[in-house]
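Listing S7. Sequence submitted for prediction.
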Amino acid sequence: MFRDRLDAAKQLAQAVGKARPADLIVLALPRGGVPLGVVLARALGAPLDMLLARKIGMPGHAKLAAGAIADGLVPFALFSEEVLTASGLREADSLGGQRF
């Protein structure tokens, strides 16, 4: 598989490079993903940007993610269908975000 994250980034760059779309943009998640994004962007000759996202946790379950919210021109939220259903939350409780 991969020796480490840097090796993963190099292998991904090789795989993507074979079918590189003309409008490719590399998005990296801070903090750990940015160094890998730099490797990918340089290898592919693509612009690099950061995707700022935060976990939406479940009250009383610190490690359980109900979804995530991301910043951008149009901030958006995604929610886990499985977690919402298991917790008894309804669509209205999920702030109108998209389920996945």
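Caption to Listing S7: primary sequence and predicted structure tokens for the chain studied. The beta strands are 26-28, 48-50, 53-58, 61-70, 76-79, 98-99. The chain has two domains: 5-50, 53-99.
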